[in-house]
Amino acid sequence: MGERDRKRKNVDDSKAFEDDDPLALCLSPPSRRPNPLTPHPPLSPPSPGPPQHSFPPPPPPLPPLLLPDFISVPSSAASAPSAAAAAAANPPARPLRARRNPSKAPRGAHKSDTVAPPFSWATDLRATVHSLNHLLSQNITNITGEAQCKRCEASQVISYDLVSKFNEVAAFIRARKHWMHDRAPAEWMTPAFPDCRSCGQPNCMRPVVAAKKRSINWLFMLLGQTLGCCTLDQLKYFCKHTKNHRTGAKDRVLYLTYLALCKQLHPAGPFER
Ligand SMILES: [Zn+2]
User: Fold this and answer.
1) What is the Å distance from ligand 1's center to 31 Cα?
2) Is residue 118 part of a domain?
3) Would residue 119 count as lying in a domain?
4) What is the CA(226)–ligand 1 centre distance, in A?
5) Does 215 reside within a domain?
6) Å from CA of 159 to ligand 1 middle
7) Tens digit of each residue's pLDDT (9 = 90 or more) over 126-178
8) What separation in Å is there between the alpha carbon of 141 and the centre of ligand 1?
9) How many CB atoms lie within 10 A of CB 188?
10) Residue 240 is part of which domain span?
11) Distance of CA 144 from the midpoint of ligand 1 (Å)
12) First-last CA distance in the chain
């Protein structure tokens, strides 16, 4: 059924509704007012011939439609007075359109547990990276990521040595964990950045945080200790998918993100909350 046909059908439906409007019927003289509670007589099946006194055999079901994925017509719709009504009861356009635009699906629907790993150091689980042992066994010793100057907007790929940068983060946590009280310190909340090679501005090469959360370069920002560039929403996404408590202010969720990432890299390390 074409778009114009569907519109015309809707107009017909609304007219039929107006005819049955009980408010409109109340305005007519009482003698001509039918009782709205009286049910309409049941519709008789279409019959081209004269009225019959014996019950006619049920009409044959409509032939199956040839559209793939078309939902089969239920028997009640098949015995409806017209084929148009049967089609209206089961319009094929809506499910087909939903499949053509999967991005329009409700949020959270059909979200798979696994994703294509966005980096060689990431697993196929959301917000999860491989352990140090695994990465070193795969000869992955440098972690790269994109950064952009806050002033001149020049982009640059930055590379961190995996082991030495991880040891920096681990030493920071080991030395200060006892008085962090489950909250990120100022150094993590307001990260320091490398200088820009293009314009020379110090402390301005911010990591580029992917728009899609599943593609965020978590390990790159852990090693640069720049996870504080993430929004609260992005950090909550990380905590949600790593089964961490995820309510609270940003300093609390940021702290949890640092510890959880360190735990992923070094499961036996001192990174319990
Ligand atoms: Zn710059």
Assistant:
1) 86
2) no
3) no
4) 18
5) yes
6) 18
7) 999 999 999 999 999 999 999 999 999 999 999 999 999 999 999 999 999 99
8) 28
9) 20
10) 132-265
11) 19
12) 60
